[in-house]
């Protein structure tokens, strides 16, 4: 594998100094139009790409970068990232992304954003303890999306999870279902609120709650399908990914959806809208969440952290009847 071309390589090929190459790529005065053209041509020929992080680290000017940490395993996080881009651009900012994966912890993702000198951080569904978020906010403006958290100095933007869970159960009740199960989200952000609202709504209707262990992934939905009591006729899943895993597994086992079992998810993630899925779901509005988060991330008031709560929407599709 060939080594990555350096600024020194460009300077040598173009017959100029390294300092002059730096001037050209930083777009500051000090080089003629002819020299700029030659340097860029050589750079393109060599495949040179400037190290913007090094430039930012050496600058005392504002970066106008907003760092975003998200988990690649969850489709709705991707939807939020997509919505954050236009929201940032409308305010004159750019985004720097850092992913949480199965092998990369949240702390590493956040540290990477700090290394880029981001002016503020947006953390999507973080799992770090409140104390860690408080410590982070002491040095960096911090906004949390999609998690109910009380942490000093931290702005919060989230959907009303309790209201969304009630919407799901009340909708299934309106369809005539009385044996309604909830596939839990374990310790995920929002899981406790959704689980509690489900239980309260069922009990208010005089019905027995059925909570099944679950999680945030399709695999969790698959495992939940094997635990589903045979008399259950409807399921409110923690999120869309879990609901889709449940859907595929039930159909593979011979149970019809929605004729035998109705399923409703939560998020309105991109996969839920696919033609072969058409999952009924509770929608979190990614555009509203992103816009509110970016407004808080770019505000100057760090002394009065705010909590913005958006309302969820019921989206009936083809998996409920």
From TrEMBL:
SMART domains: HTH_LACI (SM00354). Gene3D superfamilies: 3.40.50.2300, lambda repressor-like DNA-binding domains. Pfam families: LacI (PF00356), Peripla_BP_3 (PF13377). The keyword Oxidoreductase does not apply. InterPro entries: HTH_LacI, LacI/GalR-like_sensor, Lambda_DNA-bd_dom_sf, Peripla_BP_I. PROSITE patterns: HTH_LACI_2. Residues 5-59 form the HTH lacI-type domain. Keywords: DNA-binding, Transcription, Transcription regulation. It comes from the Bacteria. Residues 301-321 are annotated as: Disordered. One of its GO terms (molecular function) is DNA-binding transcription factor activity. This is DNA-binding LacI/PurR family transcriptional regulator.
């Amino acid at each position: 594998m060939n080594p990555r071309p350096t600024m020194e390589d460009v300077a040598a090929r173009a017959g100029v100094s390294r300092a002059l190459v730096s001037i050209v790529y930083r777009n500051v005065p000090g080089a003629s139009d002819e020299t700029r053209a030659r340097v860029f041509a050589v750079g393109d020929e060599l495949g040179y790409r400037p190290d913007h992080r090094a430039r930012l680290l050496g600058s005392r000017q504002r970066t106008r970068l907003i760092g975003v940490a998200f988990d690649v395993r969850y489709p709705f996080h991707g939807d939020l990232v997509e919505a954050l881009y236009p929201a940032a651009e409308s305010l004159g900012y750019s985004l720097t992304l850092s992913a949480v994966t199965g092998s990369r912890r949240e702390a590493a993702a956040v540290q990477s954003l700090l290394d880029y000198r981001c002016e503020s951080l947006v953390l999507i569904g973080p799992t770090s303890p409140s104390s860690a978020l408080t410590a982070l906010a002491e040095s960096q403006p911090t906004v949390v999306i999609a998690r109910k958290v009380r942490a000093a100095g931290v702005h919060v933007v989230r959907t009303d999870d309790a209201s969304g869970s009630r919407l799901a159960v009340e909708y299934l009740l309106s369809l005539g279902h009385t044996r309604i199960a909830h596939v839990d989200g374990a310790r995920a952000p929002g899981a406790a609120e959704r689980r509690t609202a489900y239980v309260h709504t069922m009990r208010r209707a005089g019905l027995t709650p059925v909570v099944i262990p679950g999680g945030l992934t399709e695999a969790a939905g698959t495992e939940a399908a094997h635990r589903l009591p045979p008399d259950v006729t409807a399921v409110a899943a923690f999120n869309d990914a879990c609901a889709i895993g449940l859907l595929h597994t039930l159909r593979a086992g011979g149970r019809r959806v929605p004729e035998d079992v109705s399923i409703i998810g939560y998020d309105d993630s991109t996969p839920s809208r696919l033609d072969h899925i058409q999952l009924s779901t509770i929608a979190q509005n990614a555009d509203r969440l992103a816009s509110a988060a970016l407004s808080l991330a770019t505000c100057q008031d760090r002394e009065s952290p705010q909590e913005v709560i958006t309302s969820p929407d019921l989206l009936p599709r083809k998996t409920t009847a």
